[in-house]
Amino acid sequence: MIIEPKTRGFICLTAHPTGCEQNVLSQIEYIKSKPTTEQPKKVLVIGASTGFGLASRITSAYGSNASTIGVYFEKPPSEGRPASPGWYNTAAFEKQAHKDGLYAKSINGDAFSNEIKEQTLKLIKEDLGEIDLLIYSLASPVRTHPNTGERFKSVLKPIGGTFKDNTVDFHTGEVKEISIEPSSGDDIKNTVTVMGGEDWQMWIDLLKSANVLTKDFKTVAYSYIGPSLTEAVYRKGTIGRAKDHLEATAFKITDTLKDIDGKAYVSVNKALVTQASSAIPVIPLYISLLYKVMKEEGIHEGCIEQIERLFSERLYANEVPLDTEGRIRIDDWEMRDDVQAKVLELWKEATTETLPSIGDLDGYKTDFFNLFGFNVEGVDYDKDVNEMVDIPGLQG
Ligand code: NAI
């Protein structure tokens, strides 16, 4: 079939297999251009199909020949209906990994559930015996609690007062003010239940009790801080509370891993266009300006560059450098004073008329469509493509 982008708000309902494959192959090429490393060797990535999780899987496999198991929640294709992009990404990754003699298997289902955790444990026991790295890179708007069956929804709201500032509709380029009402009722608790650290801890507890974690095992979850411009909706909003909880959980997990000299880290990553971040108000305008500044400075990175640097210069450095709160910082270039000062200046000038020249709206849009395999260089979108793609290492 011929597959075209069909967007609705900040999501795209279709995905292109060839474009997704091309994106994955480019990320693999990037990692292959870097020196190989000794570690990690046996890796479980939760949230492995897109964004930072996919980049973590590719970095592990192609940076140190690691065996990888990926867990994700993606929609398979049906006749005439393309799959979600993470499905095509995973298919492309596993196809290439198998060609290159790398172990790569995956599980598609709800990572919050006991069933998927048990299924993953079984696969680790049968195939790998143990793992030395677990990357926790879930981004989900909902979580059904495995013990109670209760379904929680996360919200992106400020706490304590109404938020008013500009944002951009990146499809039309219109810069306009938005107003978001503050959280109420159980909004904070619900968001922490979905995006906080409880599920991460549950994964580790299960795998630890089954003795499948190596000595010196590491686990990393991803967080974000960002500038004062976005803090009312992000770091000081409901999602920020969830990230506080995630960060506090890292210390708890490290305690439970003491006897195997294991460590849990939170890595604070850079703001990037992913399916998760395009849903957050204000972030698209911030990212458009940030991209412009970082590209001009020659310090722009995508997910794969971020994770490559995280692995080689932080996680597997002789000593893992941490900030005063005990977090890994790979958002260091984004948060540079000169970068933030420039973004703040541009923010004040940003209007529908000025944004195309002072911001990188085109870069934002390209990245957005790329997430779904569209606007990828070298792909002929007029060519018929088979939507029914299999994932070679898919279990179950
Ligand atoms: P993403 O939307 O690209 O990836 C989310 C992953 O989670 C996908 O693999 C998806 O299949 C999986 N997933 C979602 N719900 C699931 C479920 N119930 N069961 C199994 N898998 C499920 O998101 P992104 O942006 O890569 O986010 C990953 C982490 O990085 C999040 O914790 C996010 O807060 C953090 N982060 C993101 C930043 C950004 O700018 N995008 C910046 C810094 C941190």
Overview of the structural elements:
This protein has 396 residues and is an alpha/beta fold. Helix 2 (51-64) links the parallel strand 3 and strand 4 (67-72). The radius of gyration is 20 Å and the shape is globular. The strands form 4 sheets. The chain has a 7-stranded parallel sheet with strand order 5-4-3-6-11-12-13, sandwiched between helices. The protein has helices at 17-32, 51-64, 85-99, 114-128, 187-195, 198-209, 228-231, 238-256, 283-297, 303-315, 337-349, 355-358, 361-371, and strands at 7-8, 11-12, 42-46, 67-72, 104-108, 131-136, 142-144, 151-153, 163-169, 174-180, 213-223, 263-268, 328-329. The model has no long low-confidence stretch (mean pLDDT 97). Bound molecules: 1,4-dihydronicotinamide adenine dinucleotide. 1,4-dihydronicotinamide adenine dinucleotide (NAI) is lined by residues 47-53, 71-74, 86, 110-112, 137-140, 222-224, 269, 271-272, 274-277. The site of 1,4-dihydronicotinamide adenine dinucleotide has 29 residues, from helix 2, strand 4 and strand 11.
Brief descriptors of the model:
alpha/beta; single chain; Enoyl-CoA_Rdtase_cat_dom; NAD; about 400 residues; 7-stranded parallel β-sheet; Rossmann fold; binds 1,4-dihydronicotinamide adenine dinucleotide; lipid metabolism; two-stranded antiparallel sheet; Eno_Rdtase_FAD-bd_dom; EC 1.3.1.9
